[in-house]
Design goal:
Blueprint lengths: L9 E3 L13 E6 H14 L6 E4 L4 E6 L13 E4 L16 E5 L11 H19 L13
């Protein structure tokens, strides 16, 4: 698995997030392929990005977002749940989640990513991935016979 990004990140090997995440924060859980591209889009746009956890075992990202986001999330591409105690990538608390916490270099350390900005980045990224996959290519190679 590639954890690629066009931007620098600090890596922390820890079960807990490197910043103090508010206890009433929401956590967006999204697949790596979509999530990584959306996070890079946020950074490219100049948006503040808080800590992000990569679950290496289950290929998911956990992104803490500001409090109050859980009840208004409503997205097809991801879900938003209350901040977990164990930081597993599923509500049932997968045992064996292993991951890396990454943060953007610089000070001050942001506690959580803005939910609206993340939602928009995920939606834009999903739309661009969907349109790239729906490019009209012939299913079968056309052969001209003379």
């Amino acid at each position: 698995m590639t954890l690629g990004s066009d931007f620098p990140w600090n890596i922390a090997l820890s079960e807990r997030p490197p910043a103090v995440v508010p206890s009433d924060a929401g956590v967006v859980r999204v697949g790596l392929a979509l999530g990584l591209r959306a996070i890079d889009a946020l950074v490219a746009d100049g948006s503040d990005v808080g800590p992000v956890k990569y679950c290496l075992l289950h290929h998911r990202l956990l992104v803490p977002v500001e409090p109050g986001s859980v009840h208004r999330w409503r997205a097809a591409h991801s879900d938003c749940v209350p901040a977990p105690r164990s930081w597993g990538c599923d509500a049932s608390g997968y045992r064996g989640c292993s991951g890396l916490w990454v943060t953007r270099p610089g000070i001050p350390l942001i506690e959580a990513t803005a939910a609206e900005a993340l939602h928009d980045a995920l939606s834009r990224t999903r739309a661009s991935l969907s349109s790239a996959l729906s490019t009209p290519y012939p299913r079968h190679r056309q052969v001209c016979r003379a």
